[in-house]
Amino acid sequence: MGAEDLCGKRFGKLTVLRKTEQKRKGSFLWLCECECGNTILLERYKIERGLVQSCGCARKGKNTKDLKGMRIGHLQVVRRLDEKKGSCYLWECVCDCGSTIKVATNDLTKKNPVQSCGCVRQGKDIEGQRFGRLTALYPTAKRLGGSIVWMCRCDCGNVTEVSYNDLRSGNTKSCGCMVHEKGGLPLAYVDDTCVESLKSKTLYKNNTSGCTGVLWQKGRWVAQISFRKCRYYLGSYERLEDAVFVRKKAEHLLHDCFVEQYERWEQKDEGWKREHPLKIVVKGTNIDDFELEVVEQYRGNDEEKGKGKSGRYAVFGTAGERKRPGQT
């Protein structure tokens, strides 16, 4: 009677794949796969008697049965690939910047694991730092002249992409709103809002979608809008036109309605404006129920006068959640 075929059978953390032609001290070796993804060659008697039940990862404290879904630094582990680096399987990982990379099991489980695609290098992590009117939010997958491109938020509320080198050198200090000042034109700031920036609707050269506030991130088109130093997440979409549609609706609800109310207020005489400063209140938590309320407060006493609403507009598409600066 022939020896039992071990192929496909499980012993501890090992699954027997096949019998090889290799021998060790006269015994044929069997190729086994460990739960962690590593492979190992063993003699039949060691397998059947349970003398070896893993590749050694359990003993070393590196048992990575399934890394799928784990977060390691800036990396999110997506799935295990069939490819290998040496004896270790490769895992598909998505970095916070949007890049996708392949990382070996041992590189994810070692004492100092790989934690990013390389976008966050020592001395170049500038998240949260200010450069002029810009605050660095997070690195993108883009490069400009070998320099990492960072997503930044300007004090005027706009979101823009700027290279690391341009931020460090001081070449770029705003989203472009400072251009008005350089030309001798005064910028109007009302209730933390740059009026000229909302009016201009300038599309910057580094924009890749053709629409301000729409960017490609993690395989989808993300729509967002900033107003009064708050960033509103409007959802992510497979189709560019859907993201643009929602962004344009949000622009009308927030930016256009504010500019309209500001221009009415601006026509008043200076004395009246000093006594009735413009106050903006955004109501609602997403694009389906946004309301812009303009409140004129009389400084002579605390009573409110001239309270008016821009109205509500029905918007079709996925509703997004409101995000304040720094919120993830």
Describe what is shown at a glance.
The protein is of the alpha+beta class. The protein is 20% helix and 38% strand.
The averaged pLDDT comes out at 75
Shape: elongated
Runs in which pLDDT lies below 50 for 5 or more consecutive residues are 182-187, 298-328
Order of neighbouring strands in the sheet with most strands: 1-2-3-4
Number of strands: 21
Largest sheet: 4 strands, antiparallel
Helix segment tally: 8
**In percent, how much strand structure appears in the residues?**
35-45%
Helix content: 10-25%
> Measured on Cα atoms, how large is the radius of gyration?
29 Å
What does this structure look like?
- Mean pLDDT is 75; it is low at 182-187 and 298-328.
- With 328 residues, the protein is an alpha+beta fold.
- The longest helix has 27 residues, at 240-266.
- The protein has helices at residues 44-48, 57-60, 105-109, 164-169, 178-182, 195-200, 240-266, 270-275; strands spanning 10-11, 14-24, 27-34, 39-43, 71-72, 75-85, 88-95, 100-104, 130-131, 134-144, 147-154, 159-163, 189-190, 193-194, 214-217, 220-227, 230-237, 278-283, 291-297, 304-309, 322-323.
- Helix content is 20%, strand content 38%.
- A hairpin with a 2-residue loop joins strand 1 and strand 2.
- Strands 1-2-3-4 form a four-stranded antiparallel β-sheet. It has a four-stranded antiparallel β-sheet with strand order 5-6-7-8. Strands 9-10-11-12 form a four-stranded antiparallel β-sheet.
- Among the domains are: 10-60, no CATH class; 71-109.
